[in-house]
Structures are given as structure tokens and as C-alpha cells.
Write a structure and sequence with these properties.
By secondary structure, this protein is α/β, with parallel strands linked by helices. It has 12 helices and 10 strands. The structure holds NADP nicotinamide-adenine-dinucleotide phosphate.
Length: 317
């Protein structure tokens, strides 16, 4: 497993990571055996980056399950979590980046994760009410206290990233190293909206929905019924399976087959061809998915391949 640096830092992460938003809800709402099998396979395959959030699963369920199944192996991995998003069954409350909220949220995450430090603590969504200086100062204090090693964010716009890091720099505080945004073969707006700001700030990207929730695994085909026991068969996600997207997927599958490759390989390798991407944090519900995902990351796409893909993929505005 190759590793890459996370932003301008000494933190190295595996190029394939594990997104843990299925834990404590989609799988293992009350047990831990399915998540344990996924995590064990991931660690054995060399995955070091595990991404969760206090808002994933039921009442912090993803963090709780992850904390339980990691056990002693916690120190061998890079544990990333997030704060600021409403929690609880009804997801009530506002997005909150205030000092008071952060100081309580980190203690709750540490307890659920069964650890005394978080490797990467990420500001999940921007709070429109709290000044960025207050948020960055609270985060900087957590770094000084040793509760958090590095800082990141997610869903911030380019100007919000720049504002956060200029504020941090101005006051000599720790800066954000990475951001998460939706980025995959079907959703490429990050390339124009965020990439220049990330490059200028020395930050890197952890794309979320890297497999478009499974659409880019090749298991959803035009004209075929949605496979059972999959995310896209759930009513909430079904609306994401449009004819337009399935048409693009069919063209991408042909592109892959012409080269003796699979769509899953393309999904990982296209993201990793972007030097701004540190790790592809794909989610998984089964250990065999993790094994397939790790094996899919090794295709080195040529300049010609990337140019041809640009013509297959429709421009996005
Ligand atoms: P994803 O990685 O695009 O898709 C994951 C889903 O695809 C899996 O749960 C599984 O679903 C299916 N899958 C994965 N590997 C497969 C394989 N080899 N073969 C067949 N099916 C496969 O979406 P995601 O997990 O939602 O996103 C990745 C991570 O990003 C999350 O886990 C989370 O950590 C993070 N995230 C962050 C934000 C944010 O706001 N910062 C938002 C969303 C996600 P089924 O088995 O159910 O089909």
C-alpha cells in the first residue's frame, strides 16, 4: 500500500482509506461484528486512514463501533473524525463551530472512540454564525493540549478555506491540512471550485462519495434492476440512479474494457491521478469490498487516457 502526505505536514496516510459512515447505522446498529470484519480486512490490507464523524450512525454510533473494534490497533492507524454537524436520531440543533461546542464535542468523540487523541480533527460543515477566529483558536488549543494532532475540514468553499488558514497564520495558530468534498468521476466540480485554493494553501483533498455511493463499482447497469442489499436500492439514494448517469457509466465501462480494466479500478485510479488527493476514503459494508478496493488502486492512467476520459465525461458547471 502506497502512502501520501496529508497536506503540508508529516502525517502520512494510505492512498486507499476506509470511510466508516456505514458503521453504527447502515451496518451494526446494535452489534459490531460486521464492522469488525471490515476493519480487520482493511488493516491487514495496509489501510491506515479511517474516517468517521460524531454524526455518523445513530447517536455517535460510528465512532462507538470503531472505538470498540479497533482496540489495541488504534495506535497503528490514523484516526480521523469530525465535529459541528447536528447529531442524534433527529439530527436536531444547528451546525456549530463555537468554542463551547467544540470543547464538549471533542471529549465526547474521544470517549466514544476509546482513545486519548484524534489524529485528524475535521470541521464538518461551516457554521455561518461563529467567527472563524473562534473556531480556529479552539482547534489550536486542542492541538496544544495533545487531544488532536492535525486539523482538517470539509464542505468549506474556497474562500472559507483561505479565510480559515489566513486567520490561523495571522495569529500563529495551527492550520487546516485537508478538506473533504464530493469528488468522483461523476462529480468533478472540486477540480475547478476548490483545487486552485487547495494548491495555493498547501492543502490536500480527501474526496467523499469517491464511488458515487457504489455507482462507480460496476454493479449498477443500465436496463438492469437495482441489486438487493445495496445502498442505491434504498429509497433515499434511488433518485441518484438517473439515466444520464447510467449512460456515462456504460461509456466508462467500455473505456475500461478496451484496456482490460474495470470501472472500480478507474474510480480509484482516476482520483489518485490527481496529486491533490491524499487518500480515497471509500466506504464498505463487507470485507470483500475492502479487498477489491485496495486492489483497484494500482492503474497508472496515461495522459492519453485522461484526455479521452475528459471527452467521455460531460463538462460540469
Ligand atoms: P462511497 O465510498 O462512494 O460508496 C461506498 C459504498 O459503495 C459502500 O458503502 C458500499 O455500499 C459500496 N461499495 C464500496 N466498495 C464496493 C465494492 N468494491 N463493490 C461493490 N460495492 C462497493 O460513499 P461513502 O462511503 O458515503 O463515502 C466515503 C466516505 O466519505 C464515508 O464513509 C465518510 O467517511 C466520508 N463522507 C464524508 C462526507 C462529508 O460531508 N465530509 C460526506 C459523505 C461521506 P453497498 O454495499 O451498500 O452497496
Amino acid at each position: 500500500m502506497q502512502t501520501r502526505q496529508l497536506g503540508h505536514s508529516g502525517l502520512e496516510v494510505s492512498v486507499v482509506g476506509l470511510g466508516c459512515n456505514n458503521f453504527g447505522g447502515m451496518i451494526d446498529a446494535v452489534t459490531t461484528d460486521k464492522a469488525a470484519a471490515v476493519v480487520e480486512t482493511a488493516i491487514d490490507a495496509g489501510i491506515t486512514l479511517f474516517d468517521t464523524s460524531d454524526s455518523y450512525g445513530i447517536d455517535g454510533g460510528s465512532e462507538t463501533v470503531l472505538g470498540q473494534v479497533l482496540g489495541k490497533r488504534r495506535k497503528d492507524i490514523v484516526l480521523a473524525t469530525k465535529f459541528a454537524s447536528p447529531m442524534g436520531c433527529v439530527k436536531s440543533g444547528r451546525i456549530n463551530g463555537s468554542r463551547r461546542y467544540i470543547m464538549a464535542a471533542v471529549e465526547d468523540s474521544l470517549r466514544r472512540l476509546n482513545t486519548d487523541y484524534i489524529d485528524l480533527y475535521q470541521y464538518h460543515f461551516p457554521d455561518p454564525l461563529t467567527p472563524i477566529e473562534e473556531t480556529m483558536r479552539a482547534l489550536d488549543d486542542l492541538v496544544r493540549q495533545g487531544k488532536v494532532r492535525y486539523l482538517g475540514c470539509s464542505n468549506l468553499t474556497a474562500w472559507q478555506l483561505v479565510d480559515a488558514n489566513w486567520t490561523a497564520r495571522h495569529f500563529g495558530m495551527d492550520r487546516l491540512l485537508s478538506t473533504q468534498t464530493e469528488y468522483n468521476l461523476l462529480e468533478r466540480r472540486a477540480k475547478t471550485d476548490l483545487a486552485p485554493a487547495l494548491q495555493a494553501a498547501g492543502m490536500t483533498l480527501l474526496p467523499y462519495f469517491p464511488l458515487a455511493s457504489g455507482l462507480l463499482t460496476g454493479k449498477y447497469r443500465k436496463g438492469e434492476p437495482l441489486p438487493d442489499n445495496t445502498r442505491m436500492a434504498l429509497p433515499y439514494f434511488r433518485k441518484g440512479v438517473t439515466d444520464d448517469r447510467l449512460d456515462v457509466i456504460e461509456r466508462l465501462i467500455t473505456f475500461c474494457e478496451d484496456r482490460g480494466r474495470t470501472l472500480l479500478e478507474l474510480a480509484f485510479s482516476w482520483l489518485l491521478a490527481d496529486p491533490l488527493v491524499s487518500s480515497v476514503i471509500a466506504g464498505a459494508t463487507r470485507p470483500e469490498q475492502v479487498t477489491a478496493n485496495v486492489a483497484a488502486s494500482g492503474w497508472c492512467l496515461s495522459g492519453g487516457d485522461l484526455a479521452e476520459l475528459d471527452t467521455i465525461l460531460q463538462p460540469q458547471v
